[in-house]
Design brief:
The chain is an alpha+beta fold. Helix content is about 50%, strand content about 15%. The protein has helices at about 1-15, 40-55, 60-80, 85, 90-95, 95-115, 130-145, 160-170, 175-195, 275-285, 290-300, and strands at about 200-215, 215-230, 230-235, 250-255, 260-265, 270-275. The chain is globular and about 60 Å long.
Length: about 300
């Protein structure tokens, strides 16, 4: 299929961009779209793709895909057909923001094409190699703009939430996890008070909630939450891993005892993310260099 060939060629192109290139005259006639370097626009496209994949609704990508092809078709076609030597000079002209902008557009366009072929249902996972490259370059782009990279990239690399959820089940009695859950319970009243009256510069308040489903427990991040008469309600902000009862965007009710973690971002403090106690506890079981890298990339404010 044409869009799959385009995806394979552009994937190879990205790898070429990461190599040191030699000069060449042919590529000088093709201009890199200015929109690719707009990190705010790239972030908005990342959120759009996340929302579409979480809801499995490819129609959400229709307008963006049409706009991408209208604005970027010439350069995307050029990149998909140019030889390796012609592509090399772009490695000297494209920084992390341009690469992130190009990658998110590639992902949206090809994902939408696949969705159209499947009655607009998004069920296949996004290409792991491209999403990982996007996350890496987008984090670097945000650093260039003096923004701390997003705590958990919506698209691409992030702490393995499936592994963290498994740790909540299998390592609940481990000292690090017991300490984390105790800290969640201890700090929850202050977090809820802050979420009810957010300070300027803070955002992305969320609760992690344990929802029983048969013999298993599903863990959801819940946003737009509120409490009334001791019962909480909120909106699910991630797709279930196995539960058939719920889907992304559902409103649910839950009790305080089901809350196992909380998070929020604070732009006043280098956009650090606070909370994530269970994530930090799970990272404590990983090799120190790997844990430190995850904490650095996602700017987790883990307690010692």
């Amino acid at each position: 299929m044409p869009h799959l060939r385009l995806l394979r060629r552009l994937s190879a192109t990205v790898l070429c961009f990461l190599l040191a290139g030699l000069g060449g005259a042919q590529a000088e006639t093709m201009q890199i779209p200015p929109s690719w370097s707009d990190h705010a626009q790239t972030r908005a496209l990342e959120e759009l793709l996340y929302q579409a994949t979480q809801s499995e609704d490819g129609r959400k990508l229709s307008a963006a895909s049409t706009q991408i092809m209208a604005q970027d078709k010439p350069v995307m076609e050029f990149l998909s057909t140019a030889d390796k030597e012609t592509l090399k000079p772009y490695s000297l002209r494209m920084g992390p923001c341009e690469l992130a902008g190009m990658l998110i557009r590639m992902l949206i366009f090809t994902t939408y094409q696949d969705a159209k072929a499947g009655q607009h249902r998004l069920t296949a996972p996004l290409p792991a190699n491209l999403t990982a490259m996007f996350a890496e370059h987008m984090n670097r782009c945000e650093l260039l703009h003096r923004n701390v990279p997003s705590t958990l990239r919506l698209i691409g690399s992030s702490p393995d939430q499936a592994a963290i959820d498994q740790a909540l089940d299998t390592r609940r009695d481990a000292p690090a996890m017991r300490k984390a859950l105790a800290r969640v319970a201890e700090t929850l009243p202050d977090f809820l008070a802050l979420a009810a009256n957010p300070k300027e510069g803070t955002s992305d308040y969320a609760l992690k909630v344990a929802i029983p489903d048969g013999r298993k427990t599903e863990y959801f991040w819940v946003i737009d939450f509120s409490e009334k008469d001791g019962t909480f309600s909120g909106t699910l902000n991630n797709k279930p891993r196995f539960s058939k009862k719920y889907k992304f965007g559902d409103r649910i009710t839950f009790q305080r005892a089901q809350i196992v973690d909380w998070i929020y971002n604070d732009a006043r403090n280098k956009r650090r993310t606070f909370g994530h106690f269970t994530t930090c506890a799970a990272l404590a079981q990983e090799p120190p260099d790997q844990a430190a890298l995850v904490m650095e990339i996602h700017h987790l404010a883990c307690e010692p």
